[in-house]
Every structure is written in C-alpha cells, then in structure tokens.
Amino acid sequence: MQPASEFNKEASAALVVAVKAGDYAAAGEAIRLGADANTVDLPTGRMTPLHFAVSAGRVHTHDPPAFSGSTAAQLTRLLLRYGARAGAGDYMGFTPLHLAAFHNLPGVLDLLLGNLQQQPGRLASLLLLQDSEIKYTPLHCAVEGHHASAVVSLLQAGAAAGLDAKDWTSRTAWNLAAVHYPKFAATLMADLNIALARSSE
Q: Which residues form the signal peptide (predicted)?
C-alpha cells in the first residue's frame, strides 16, 4: 500500500464524491489518478469511501439509499481491490462491517467477509468489535436492521464467539432480538435452523 504522502488529495476527494453518488466510472477514474481508498471524509464524521459504498451512499443510518444494491456491491469490490479497510472506524467507531450488517445490501456483506477471511485474526477481532457509543457489534447491527440472513452469515464467519457481548443497555444481540423484535426473532430462529440443517448435510 502506498504511503499517505503519495496519494493524490484531489483524486481522493473526488473518490468520496463519486462513491457517495454511486458513480462507478468516476470512482475508478479517481483511483487511476491516485486516490486513497481509505481517505476519510471529515464533514461526515470520518467516514471512508467503503462506509459509503456498503450503505448505498447514506450519511445517516435512516437516509434513503443514493443508489442500488448492485452498484453498492460493484463499488465495494472495487474499493477492496485497492486496499479499502473493512475495519476503519468512523467517529463513533462504526466500521464498514457494522454498516454492511445493518443495511445487508445484496452481496456486500459477503464481499467484506470474504475479503477478511484472508486475514483470519483480523476477521475474528472485527466480528467482536463494538462501536464507542452504543457498544454494538456487527451482530447487534444485523439484528437492529432485521436481517436474518446477515445474522446467519456473521455467525458462520465466527461471530458466535461474541454472543455474550453487551451494548450500552446490557443487551446481547439475542436480548435485542427477543425483547424488542419478537417477530424478527421468530424469523431468525427459523433461518438459523435451516442453516444448521444445511451445514449438517
């Protein structure tokens, strides 16, 4: 990876703009011109291009998506190819992995997990990482987003090691599902049973 001093600042700024807008061609051009795939956008709380890619351009959690899930996957793949870090934290400590688990755009979480599987120690630590504000792990984020498939993917990747991790209100991810989202919890249990059955075949 290049030293920070060797990256083109203008291209890095252009990369942020391109990814936030879902402009794949412009993002690729910015990288060709020397953009840093891990540049931080200070006005949006130190989010990186990968934060924007995995959340379809959202700055705030409940903003509408700026582009499609397929574009999000294309941008995620591009950024990972050029060294974007799935564990880069924003000002609250949320990583692209947290956001990918919450939004669960098609294929995006699997891309991050696949990339991290090449660094087993890093994957294990990021699956257990809690943000600095509400103490959510990626598993909490998947539950908060009501994405059973994301929960299954995280557990299969090793998140089960952090099932006892508690948020700022002392809730584990299971507590969060069972107490606050009982209908989702029922769906989740069904999906987990299916996943377990398939893994034992």
A: none
- Residue pair 68/14 in contact (Cβ under 8 Å)? The answer is no
* Per-residue model confidence (pLDDT) at position 179: 84
Helix 69-81 / helix 24-32 crossing angle, nearest 10 deg: 10
Averaged pLDDT of the chain: 92
Residues of the chain short of pLDDT 50, as ranges, are none
CB 142 within 8 A of CB 185: no
Quick check: 38 and 90 in contact, CB under 8 A?
Answer: no
CA separation, residue 58 to residues 9, 18, 94, 178, 192 (Å): 23, 13, 14, 28, 29
How many independent structural domains does the chain possess?
A: 1
In the chain, beta strands by DSSP E: none
For residues 68 and 21, is the Cβ–Cβ distance under 8 A?
no
Q: What pLDDT, on the 0 to 100 scale, is given for residue 151?
A: 93
